[in-house]
C-alpha cells in the first residue's frame, strides 16, 4: 500500500509525517530557511501554526473511503473498507460492562495503517501561490512572506479562508486555542491579525513547532532556556547516580549522561547549533557542570583557584581537559558533526523539497546582510 501511494505521488511533497526518510528536522529546516531568508531581506514572515482537535479520532469514515477509492486499486479499497467499518467498542469499569456501540468516526488507535490513512485523508488540502505549507501529520504551518506586513497577512488570510472551507467540508475541527499566529521579523511591530471562521488566531512571539521553540527573531534563546530547564529537572532526578558515588563506575555515569540527558539537547542541534555563542553556552555550561560531577572534579570557583596553591588541595581541571579525558565533544563540535551528517543525506532524497535543502546558501541565495550564522555555516567549521 505504501509503495503504491509513493509510486503514484498520492501524498503532497509538503507532507512529511509518518513517511520513510522524512523527519521533523527536515520540516523544521524548511520553516527555518523561509524565516531566515525573510530576515536577511528585511521582510515580514507571517506564520500560522494550526492544531487539529482530536485529529485521528474525528476522521470522517465515509469521506476517507471516498478518497481511498480514488487513489487505491479496488482490491485494496475493499480490504481497507472491511478494516474501517463495522467496528464496535465496549467499556468495562470494575465488574460493570457497557453495551456494545458502533464506532462512527476515527481510524483505529495504534493501528499500523492509521497514520497512512490519515495522510491520505488530508492529502488534498488547498494551497495558494503566496504561501508556503509545511505539514507533519496533523501539525500544519502556513507561511506568507512579503516586504509589506499588510500583504503578508492578506496572503495568509486567503489561504486560511480556503483551509477553513476545506475543514468544514471534510468535518475536521480546528483547535483555535492551540493555534498560533507568529510574525518573524527584525522590524518593530507585527503583521495584522488573521482569523479562521471569523475567530482571530491568538498572536505569540514564540511557537513550539515539532519540538523546537522558535522566537520572532530566530535567536533560539527561548529554546535553549526551555531545554536548560528540562535538563536541570532531569539532572536532579539523577544526582545520586551522577555525583560522587562509590557504587557507580565512571563508565556507567557517562552512559547515563549520553542516554538520558544528552538526547534532550541534541534534538534539533543541526538547526540551533549555529546560534549566538551566549545562547549555546546555556547548554555548554550544563554539560561542563555535569561532567565535573561525573568525574568528581572540583567546580570552577575563585575559592578552588586559590586552594590550588595549597599543597594538599585537588588540582583544578579545565573544561577542555575534562572533555578530552572523557572523550566528549563540546556543543559546538556536536553541532558541526550532526549537521554535516544530516546535510550529506539530502542530495539523493526522493522528495524534491528535501533535496532543495542541499544548498550552501539560503533559498534564492539572498545577500548576507546579518552578521549572525545560519545552520549551513556549520559546514565550513
From TrEMBL:
<dbReference type="Pfam" id="PF00078">
    <property type="entry name" value="RVT_1"/>
</dbReference>
<dbReference type="InterPro" id="IPR043502">
    <property type="entry name" value="DNA/RNA_pol_sf"/>
</dbReference>
<keyword id="KW-0808">Transferase</keyword>
<dbReference type="InterPro" id="IPR000477">
    <property type="entry name" value="RT_dom"/>
</dbReference>
<feature type="domain" description="Reverse transcriptase">
    <location>
        <begin position="1"/>
        <end position="214"/>
    </location>
</feature>
<dbReference type="GO" id="GO:0003964">
    <property type="term" value="F:RNA-directed DNA polymerase activity"/>
</dbReference>
<protein>
    <submittedName>
        <fullName>Reverse transcriptase domain</fullName>
    </submittedName>
</protein>
<keyword id="KW-0548">Nucleotidyltransferase</keyword>
<keyword id="KW-0695">RNA-directed DNA polymerase</keyword>
